[in-house]
Amino acid sequence: MHPGEILDRIDAYQRGHNWLSLPYGIVKRFGELDVGKLTAALSYYGFFSLFPLLLVLSSVGGYVLKDHPNLRDRVLDSAIAQFPFVGQQLRDNVGSIQGSGIAVLVGLALAVWAGLGAIRAAQSAMDTVWDVPRKRRPGTPKSIGLASLTLVVLAAFIVTASVVGWLGTQGGTVGHVLGIVATVVLNVGFFALGYRVLTTADVSWGQVFPGAVLAGVGWTALLALGGWIVSNRVSSSTNVYGTFAMVIGLLGWIYLGAQLALMGAVTDVVVANRLWPRSLRGELTDADRRALRRLADQEERRSDEEVDVAFDEQRT
Prior knowledge:
By secondary structure, the chain is mostly helical. The chain is built from eleven helices and no strands.
């Protein structure tokens, strides 16, 4: 049998079965949007905002809870658990920065600068994923205002996640299980909120729920994996190798997290707009045409500009 005939049969089969055509539609949409570039931007700003954020967190925690050392240590340990690879290194040196007003100010300024860049990159990524025309995307002042508000929400999320993580260690096995469940629910809620507010597109809670579940569960698993790698691999390495492993591991962890977040958003778009089944080869499906039109519509940059798309119906 000719390879083309085999591909035709595979294509026909996947088009007729949602359990296969939906994942393929998500993967194909993921590639069409050139998500690799969006992930790189998120990873860049995420990497540079993480260290100042941890510095501020440790300094503020050390200052506010300086009279309650046991509580301070528990809260900081729970917060640092949210950041594999670098959290423990900072925790080991927290005594040198806690309570330092200069450290707080410097760290806060750097965290705000890098954090705003990360949030604005996320805004651009979400608008791209939802195919928002460029003429409808927010300008710089509005974008910065929304990014600032999102940073406050992110800080509240980190604090809440830290408290939930600490409470999960207080009740034995039952408390640990409940802590994991609460963490998953919290992560799903956070991603749902981010998916809804970071895009100019008019989306509902129901539309962002599937991707939020995917990203929330995946993020919880990614945190657990990062913690396992640190405790079983990096911690036993030599100082030089451990430093390289920490940096490479951190970059890889941030990149995977960004990929996961964008995969959840793409899932929402595909499900909400029923962009499947997609063609593996040959004649375009209706979902193919609608997906390609959405991509073209993104390029409208002026209010008086309108992009029109036509297809040659001849089989290729």
